[in-house]
Predict the 3D structure of the following.
Amino acid sequence: EAGVVQSPRYKIIEKKQPVAFWCNPISGHNTLYWYLQNLGQGPELLIRYENEEAVDDSQLPKDRFSAERLKGVDSTLKIQPAELGDSAVYLCASRIDSGGEQFFGPGTRLTVL
Amino acid sequence: EDQVTQSPEALRLQEGESSSLNCSYTVSGLRGLFWYRQDPGKGPEFLFTLYSAGEEKEKERLKATLTKKESFLHITAPKPEDSATYLCAVQAWAGNYGQNFVFGPGTRLSVLP
């Protein structure tokens, strides 16, 4: 069974530029999460989807971050414009329903110069 | 506010030297406690889920236990390949959002040969 796929794995951009991350969850997993992880810290939730509905986006900085999950499968997280403080690893995770463990992708490491 | 703390922040062990990692939590209605392992440059890898006080789970050299306020990850006779960051996370009731998933900062374990 294929795991959670994320791309790109690494991204370097200059501040004020836009950037987008893509996630393909495990087949059949209807719950999808985007997390941000700073060095030496645990993941912090940005947004949670149940199918195509964003059921918890309370921690998403909506002035510059946006996300979508079309057709309840793949998801895209966008930052526009990026700031220096956005440098971090962006993790995507999925689970089969609202209970049980999450399975994580390898993450996208973003560096904003 | 749901909170998760982990101790120690970092731990160095000699190969074969058993020890325990601690995860303390304050949540309003625990739905589950999760342990993950994270290697550098990778996403967290699921280890265990615990749902109620007194529950224990084992996998190879690892054993996780749960009380009403904390969880322990016991490592028996560790090997260098057990070196990683171990993350604890709790899932709790979160009112209108249905659930809240909070990670601790992790414990960085180094096992020396």
Notes: The first strand of chain A starts at residue 5 and ends at 7.
